[in-house]
Amino acid sequence: MTRERIYLFDTTLRDGQQTPGVDFSVEDKIAISNLLDEFGLDYVEGGYPGANPTDTAFFSQKRTVKSKFVAFGMTKRAGISASNDPGLAVLLQAKSDATCFVAKSWDYHVRVALGCSNEENLESIRDSVEAARGAGKEALVDCEHFFDGYKANPEYALACAKTAYEAGARWVVLCDTNGGTQPGEIRAIVEAVIASGIPGTSLGIHAHDDTGQAVANSLAAIEAGCRQIQGTLNGIGERCGNANLVTIIATLALKDAYCSRFETAIDAERLTGLTRLSHAFDELLNRSPNHQAPYVGASAFATKAGIHASALLKDPRTYEHVTPESVGNLRKVMVSDQGGKSNFINALKRRGIEVGKDDPRLDQLISIVKEREATGYAYEGADASFELLARRTLGTIPEFFSVEGFRVMVERRFDSHGRIKIVSEAVVTLVVDGQTLMSVAEGDGPVNALDRALRKDFGKYQHEIDDLVLADFKVRILNGGTEAITRVLIESIDSTGVRWWTVGVSENIIDASFQALMDSVIYKLMKNRELAGKIAAE
Ligand SMILES: [Zn+2]
């Protein structure tokens, strides 16, 4: 039986931008659109060209290779022709494959927000779709407040959708803009829209999570006949968020109710990249991934000790609704038993470290990792630090150098022009081959000063760290208040293009940074000697 195709439309960069605390730069948008494009989504909506400098710059060139690159904007204003609307002109000049227009479909909003007649609004929809098609773009129309509009005035809501469809819109997207509609209502209204003459193969669903049902509403719309789903990575978005595409993708691919009838661009092989996609996006946002996220959370396949764990080890199907491997996640049994041990042995093996099952140093390593993770270390995101810890415990790291101490000063003062100036200065004392080396450096902020001082005089290793660059630096406060624990993650890269992550944890942010810096430098020295494993880009 041939399966029907469901199209996946990502609006992380447009609707997701409305999330409180989220503000994407052009560089962020490029990185995220690459993630989405490589993962294989059908549509990537990039933003609203003409509405702000970031989005205008982002749309100065096409940013996707395979995904259709979508620009979002308003339909033409009432009272002027499409060709005379400067906003529409900017939108159509954007380097996009498709244009998604937002259109009012609730007569109340037409009157109050647009201040034009119902007929003028229909004309704006028709003319805008035609203008986009004339410019060689695929046209989509997001019918804003469609479900509330339908409840208030079904004839008019349908007229808006129908006008878009008849003008040639590839997709008419039904939006639950306020997020309050229930799955049963979604299903009934989508069925009514299809009965009115718009085929489901031209209908999309855009759901918000205000009652915690954006995913359920999206699936209800699919069951009723919609064939495109809009959503965001990890469900970010205004208020309570948008439909979580990560959850939807896995459900469509793995649940028989859907995968027996439908297919998406995400096949079984691509699906194994889902956990990575979700976590990479959180890293970009510098927020910790939701441990309880369906399918991709660190706890999604974690079982505590006890009867569940032992049954799980005998036959995982007893306690798992899908396999963790199918979405690229890992099974976790959180006890130091055989399961935990073999996980460790495998993790070490992947880094080229062989250790016997009965080696007491293995037990020692497991207890150190557990202890450290309890105090805030996160080795999942810092593979280089994990490898160093393992090699230290197994006694296979040479003593390259030792640190006698460091001191950092931050001074706020006025310069000769009376302007406020913040000066950071660091002193680091190292011992290399019995020789004490003391370096002083200023920097942009205390961590930068520390990094410069550390690298100023490394004795015989100096030339070895010339190509070491700190690519990223992330700080996370682990519990509230001024006594919070700080975790610092540092991403490093060298001239070979290899990247590695290191971690430091302390009550003091400078000390946490220093630990992560030291691990990065030692990892680099190990790598230069080919003593380091295959950490890069995992
Ligand atoms: Zn929305």
Can I get a quick summary?
This protein is α/β, with parallel strands linked by helices and 538 residues long. It has helices spanning 26-39, 53-58, 86-93, 107-114, 118-134, 146-152, 154-167, 183-195, 214-224, 245-254, 256-259, 268-271, 274-285, 307-314, 338-350, 360-374, 383-393, 446-456, 509-528; strands at residues 4-5, 7-10, 43-47, 68-74, 98-104, 138-144, 171-176, 203-207, 228-231, 262-263, 302-303, 332-333, 402-414, 420-432, 435-443, 469-477, 486-493, 499-506.
Q: Helical residue percent?
A: 25-40%
Assembly classification: single chain
Ranges with pLDDT <50 over ≥5 residues? 335-339
Radius of gyration: 28 Å
The set of bound ligands, ions and cofactors reads: zinc ion
Strand order of the largest sheet: 2-3-4-5-6-7-8-9
Instruction: Estimate what percentage of residues fall within beta strands.
Output: 15-25%
Derived from helix and strand composition plus strand pairing, the structural class reads alpha/beta
Shape: globular
Overall mean pLDDT stands at 91
Task: Write down how many β-strands occur, each being a DSSP E stretch of 2 or more residues.
Answer: 18
Number of helices: 19
What is the end-to-end distance? 38 Å
Please outline the major beta sheet.
8 strands, parallel, barrel
